[in-house]
Structures are given as structure tokens and as C-alpha cells.
Amino acid sequence: MARVSDEELHQLATELGEKLLARGWMLATAESCTGGWVGQLLTSLPGCSQWYERGFITYANAAKIEMLSVPADLIDTHGAVSEATASAMATGALAHSHAQATLAISGIAGPGGGTPQKPIGLVCYGWALADGTVMSSTCRLDGDREEIRSRAVAAALRGLIELIG
Predict the structure, then answer these.
(1) pTM for the full model?
(2) Which terminus of the chain has fewer CB atoms gathered within 10 Å of its CB, N or C?
(3) Which residues of 100-117 are buried (b: 16+ CB within 10 A; e: fewer)?
(4) Close Cβ partners of 88 (under 8 Å, ≥ 6 residues apart)
């Protein structure tokens, strides 16, 4: 399978930006395995400062704990790649920003790092809104590191687009 095209990613980012702008909302992102790809994509759009507030790149567990207030015992119990951690990243991004909507991504992009319980391509997402709505999802993505990461970016954007309607 191929990586998600730049055109498709641009379309998703544009759609999300339009939805946020229409509501007068700001977005904060919390990324692990995508290393800031969502933030880079969003900030490539002219006018994004009207709806994109900040991004957290929290690759290490310590960064998730320090920057997003993810409880260490939650990571110890569920692992960094879990819906519980992704949800905590999303709610932490809300708490540490002025945003009304957040998205979070944590996963195993490979080529190493997978286990039988958490294989390469496992990606967990969290989304949170200022009204208290928190949603999470997990999927297994195929492909190489670049393909997995691009698909994770697209899925995170689609999830937030769907959540905010």
C-alpha cells in the first residue's frame, strides 16, 4: 500500500481548519509516533493561526508525563500505545492549551518496536473537546514506517472532523 498522498492530507487539513474556523475554535495536537507531522501539515495552510494554537511532540514517556500530565501509572499499566494513554494525551493537551479541540496520536510505526501484543502498525488516537467529550480509537495499519505514519495522520484528522461534525 502507498502512503497517503500529500493532496489527500492537504484536503483533510483544509476541511478540519474550515470546521474549526466556523466554530471559532482553536486546535492543539499531541503527537508521538507522527513526530509533529500533523502540526507541520496544519501550519502549511495559510491562515491556520486563526484555528491552530499549538502542538506537543511527546515521543518519550517522560514528555507525555511532563508536558501533558499523562499519569505515569496509566502508562505503566496500559503502555504508551493504548487508547487510555491517547485519551490522556488529548485531555492533557486541552488542559495545557487554550484550545477547544485536541487530537492525539501514539503508535508503533516500525520497523522495530512491535510485540505480539502490540505489533508494528498499531496506532491509538484520542480526541477531546472543551465540552468534556473524549473519544478514542485503535487501528492496525499496514506498510512501512512512512506509510503507517501518513495513514495515522489522515486517520487522526478524519476522526476529529467526524467528532466536531
Answers:
(1) 0.97
(2) C
(3) bbbbbbbbbbbeeeeeee
(4) 64, 68, 69, 70, 71, 74, 126
pLDDT, one tens digit per residue, over 123-152 is 999 999 999 999 999 999 999 999 999 999
Strands laid side by side in the 122-129 sheet: 52-57, 27-31, 101-107, 122-129, 134-140
Structural domain for 24, as ranges: 6-164
Q: Is the peptide bond before 111 cis (omega within 30 degrees of 0)?
A: yes
Is residue 129 assigned to a domain?
A: yes
Residue 1 lies in a domain: no
> What is the CATH classification number for the domain harbouring 94?
3.90.950.20
Residues 6 or more apart in contact with residue 158 via CB below 8 angstroms: 12
Spatial distance between the Cα atoms of 42 and 154, rounded to a whole number of angstroms: 12
77 Cβ partners below 8 Å, 6+ apart? Answer: 84
